[in-house]
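Worked problem 6 (solution included).
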Amino acid sequence: MGENYFGITDTGRQRTNNEDSFIAQTVSGDHFIIACVIDGVGGYAGGEIAAQLTRVAIIDQLEKLGANITDQLVAALANANERIIKEKEVNPENEKMACVVTLAMVNIEKNVCYFAHVGDTRLYLFRDGSLIKLTRDHSTVGFLEESGRLTEEAAMLHPKRNEVNKVLGYETQMRLTKDFIDTGESPFLPGDTILVCSDGLTDMVPASLIIAALTTGDDLASKGRHLIKAANEAGGKDNITVVLVHNNKSPLHHTVAKPLISLKKNNGNGAEEPKIAEQDTHPGEATVKSSGIKEINRLLLFFCIIFLSGFLWLLIKNYNADKENKKLPVSIIPVQKNQQEINLLQSIRASSGNIVQLTAGQTIVISDTVLIENDSLHIIGNGASFVRDPAYSGPAFILSPSCKYILFDSLGIRNFDIGILVLNKGLHLKNIQFKNCLLPLQFQQQLSQDTTVSGNQADTVFYHTGPLAK
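Solution. The predicted structure is:
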């Protein structure tokens, strides 16, 4: 099975040490293949150590597989996180070391790939000439690229390209859950290839060149070396790591049905020779059959003309009906809010003393943006959480320009693309936990038309806890 997978890492042309690590090996009696890329956070001492600790922790955790593969992948990353933290306690000189990781577990027999992911290393699926990104970058630039606000070229050149929002081993992230670690699974069909790589490849090589490398008829080792070479030729600014896995099972093909064959004795030696059954007819039958077919064709043509005439009549009738009804208003189905949302909105609008108290531990599912227009408001969460409805993709809260003082106190906001969209400077936070939010806070300054502005934007506490630089 060794020809099914390949891993390679390279220091690059501008680094003196390699903080990347990878796993490309089989487990569980060669039924599964681990494909993993780990990138130690650069700029801090110990990034290489964090990557190696993570590698060992993952192999130890996945040596024996249980029934739920996804849970075991999450446990492997949580175990790696704890090992990094313990190492930092023993060696304070490495107190800021961390890493990002993409871990895939492939079962070729069952044509499936499971994965767990933290950071900006990536997992791609290559199928029929198309490169599909299965993971999403935990970074602001990655979010802007994935949402279409930045092109691939602009994202590759962005000055904050290497800043990430999630890592393993950072002090404030000791309790990892599925909300923190992205997980998923994908069909992995015969002929498919997966690519796991560090940002040393994707920051240097565009998707078009990656596709070109994977499309070659070379083996996996040659394709991996070609990708490394392409990244180095583009500048090699970072360590480069690539792991490839190919499902080399033959695609299933349907058998073409053969014509019916009858067997007829040979007069000479008794051997049987094949004869097509349709040819075994009596003399003179061919002319009769041909004449009958012509009659059937005439009938079919007659019925087709009748059907076509009726179809054209219906089209004309419907067109006239549409002209008569074209001015009728179109009904719009409003978003159906759940009772928790309705109660929350009523409490906000009719708040007594500008205070809204939530039930301790309560979970409120948000299916539409909660717009706050109060002059002042204090929302006391008591540990409650706001969770995104899977069908909704907007912000959890929007603070209108009329808000002067809005305080969110002791609550959680989970799984939103944007947690809170602020259109003024009235937001205040106290003990707020954002989980799995691509952009926890977004500030938008609104100015009237033809406004002349001087000065600089005042700093706030929200800008002091910025992302980690790799």
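Discussion: The CA atoms of residues 138 and 275 lie 68 Å apart.
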